[in-house]
């Protein structure tokens, strides 16, 4: 402990010396970077730390190191997440002062597409694929890039996420208890597991108090289950034409299977009114044994079982904790993520020279170098982290919020391109290794949405797509719960077509045909 304290004191002395040197050279941020002859990059990004992002004794040192790595000056504009959309809208309304980089959450929206069509953003195709200049950004997945393309122009850099995150997880100790000796591979195997988890007392308490499958009003699990039957991801290609998945024959087959699960009592009967903030509680509390969503969600349930304060004993060996099997795909299929969650755009009005564009992209690229990413994710070696005897990264500031604040939030500038484990990284345990393994395994099975990029360029979808999607989603829920029959389904689908769905199909396929 004394050694760690000494290291921190010495690092502080060094940091203060560096800061004094920087001060003597002038405030480079306020002078637009001219003191060092660098381009200044203005960057609007998200503050999830209530104003405490990149603050504290080492904050300037950390940001300065990032600047040196990219040979730029950085002016950060922190925006609280709950007002991000409003701030982005205001920024785009004033092109001459628009930040050079803007961080967006989610996926492309109608207003971003409209702005792109009017030339608000730099076409990154002219730059990004240069592997010599941008060795990290140039590794962008081309399928993901297509979803961020408007009128043939790549307008954004994704904040990449694992493609194979979705799938099935289940209580391994429950499976052992009811005699399931092999991982489920087919939908029939899954049904058998759900049935046994519901009716064969998997927790051994002699009470009929369990369900097979966790479910709330969040209907994402149904989208995953549908892929097991050959249903697409939102849209599918049939005979060369793109159609929404509810027009696939397999969609009804999947829907009937889910309805049988509901009718047979293998999921909570009140699922449609259970709020989404209770999602995963069923598995944690021993009400349910199967969790269908992101693999890291299944891993977090497993984490919960192992923690001292929430320790959950295995039903087959009370001396061990309960455990989850992170399985992933069924029938060789699972849902692909979009490949990103949020994205960066470059303003055409303020990145108005090739030099400014290149400086901005250089920053976004160098942030993904190992040492720079290590800095913005974990802070300073000897202050925020150290290596253990096995060369693994160990946090030193887990409970020291003041130290964490020095680098907090800077990871919001990361594109995570390419995806890789840092060196050093925190040691993986059984749970995190299982998650990493299934992510890799799932990539070969993940079903993409072939219409993503076309929907972003569909004027009708941008205008009323969300409303039309709700028609189909609501009808699916009503059918599963027995509130409507097949005729009701057909009525809903016909309403979707007549209220603008057919126009969206036409707009999507016009683009699809042009790209062939």
Which residues form runs of ≥5 with pLDDT under 50? 1-34
Rg, nearest Å: 25 Å
Give the biggest beta sheet.
5 strands, mixed
Calculate the mean pLDDT score and round it.
91
Inertia-based shape: globular
Kindly state the number of beta strands: 17
Classify the secondary structure makeup into a structural class: alpha/beta
What does this structure look like?
The strands form six sheets. A five-stranded mixed sheet has the order 2-1-3-14-6. A four-stranded mixed sheet has the order 8-11-7-12. A two-stranded antiparallel sheet has the order 4-5. It is an alpha/beta fold. It contains 18 helices and 17 strands. Strand 9 (235-238) and strand 10 (241-244) form a beta hairpin. The N and C termini lie far apart (64 Å). Mean pLDDT is 91; it is low at 1-34. Helix 2 packs across helix 12 (354-366), helix 11 runs antiparallel to helix 15 (430-443) and helix 17 packs antiparallel against helix 18. The chain is 42% helix and 15% strand. The chain has helices at residues 2-24, 59-70, 84-92, 110-117, 142-147, 172-177, 187-199, 220-228, 249-263, 281-285, 295-306, 354-366, 370-378, 401-404, 430-443, 452-456, 459-480, 486-515; strands spanning 39-47, 72-80, 101-104, 149-150, 153-154, 157-160, 166-171, 211-213, 235-238, 241-244, 288-294, 324-328, 334-335, 340-346, 385-387, 393-395, 446-447. The chain is globular, with a radius of gyration of 25 Å.
């Amino acid at each position: 402990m004394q050694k760690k304290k000494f290291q921190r004191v010495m690092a502080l002395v060094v940091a203060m010396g560096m800061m004094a040197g920087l001060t003597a050279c002038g405030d480079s941020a306020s002078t637009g970077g001219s003191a060092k002859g660098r381009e200044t990059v203005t960057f609007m990004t998200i503050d999830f730390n209530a104003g405490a992002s990149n603050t504290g004794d080492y904050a300037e040192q950390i940001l300065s190191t990032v600047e040196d790595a990219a040979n730029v000056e950085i002016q950060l504009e922190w925006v609280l997440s709950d007002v991000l959309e409003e701030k982005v809208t205001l920024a785009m309304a004033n092109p001459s002062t628009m930040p050079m980089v803007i961080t967006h959450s989610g996926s492309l929206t109608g207003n971003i597409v409209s702005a792109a069509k009017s030339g608000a953003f730099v076409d990154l195709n002219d730059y990004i694929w240069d592997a010599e200049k941008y060795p990290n950004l140039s590794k962008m997945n081309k399928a993901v890039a297509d979803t961020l393309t408007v009128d043939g122009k790549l307008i954004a850099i994704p904040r990449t996420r694992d493609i194979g995150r979705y799938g099935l997880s289940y209580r391994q100790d429950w499976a052992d208890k009811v005699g399931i000796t092999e991982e489920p591979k087919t939908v029939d195997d899954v049904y058998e597991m759900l049935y046994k988890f519901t009716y064969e007392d998997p927790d051994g308490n002699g009470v009929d108090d369990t369900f097979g499958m966790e479910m709330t009003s969040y209907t994402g699990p149904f989208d995953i289950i549908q892929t097991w039957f050959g249903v697409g991801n939102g849209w599918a290609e049939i005979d060369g034409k793109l159609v929404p998945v509810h027009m696939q024959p397999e969609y009804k087959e999947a829907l009937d299977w889910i309805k049988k699960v509901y009718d047979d009592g293998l999921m909570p009967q009140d699922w449609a009114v259970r709020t989404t903030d209770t999602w995963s509680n069923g598995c944690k509390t021993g009400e349910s044994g199967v969790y269908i969503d992101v693999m890291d969600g299944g891993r977090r349930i497993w984490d919960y079982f192992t923690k001292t304060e929430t320790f959950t004993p295995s039903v087959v060996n009370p001396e061990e904790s309960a455990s989850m099997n992170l399985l992933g795909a069924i029938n060789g299929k699972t849902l692909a993520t979009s490949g990103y969650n949020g994205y960066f755009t470059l303003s055409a009005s303020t990145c108005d020279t090739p030099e400014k564009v290149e400086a901005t992209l250089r920053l976004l690229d160098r942030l993904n170098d190992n040492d720079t990413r290590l800095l913005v994710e974990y802070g300073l070696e000897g202050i925020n982290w150290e290596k253990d005897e096995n060369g693994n990264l160990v946090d030193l500031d887990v409970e020291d919020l003041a130290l964490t604040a020095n680098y907090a939030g800077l990871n919001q500038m990361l594109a995570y391109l390419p995806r890789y484990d840092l060196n050093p990284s925190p040691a993986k345990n059984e749970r995190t290794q299982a998650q990493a393994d299934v992510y890799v395994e799932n990539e070969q099975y993940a079903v993409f949405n072939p219409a993503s990029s076309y929907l972003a360029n569909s004027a009708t979808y941008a205008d009323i797509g969300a409303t039309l999607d709700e028609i189909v989603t609501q009808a699916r829920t009503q059918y599963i719960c027995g509130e409507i029959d097949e005729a009701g389904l057909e009525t809903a689908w016909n309403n979707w077509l007549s209220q603008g769905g057919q126009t969206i199909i036409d707009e999507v396929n016009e683009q699809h045909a042009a790209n062939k």
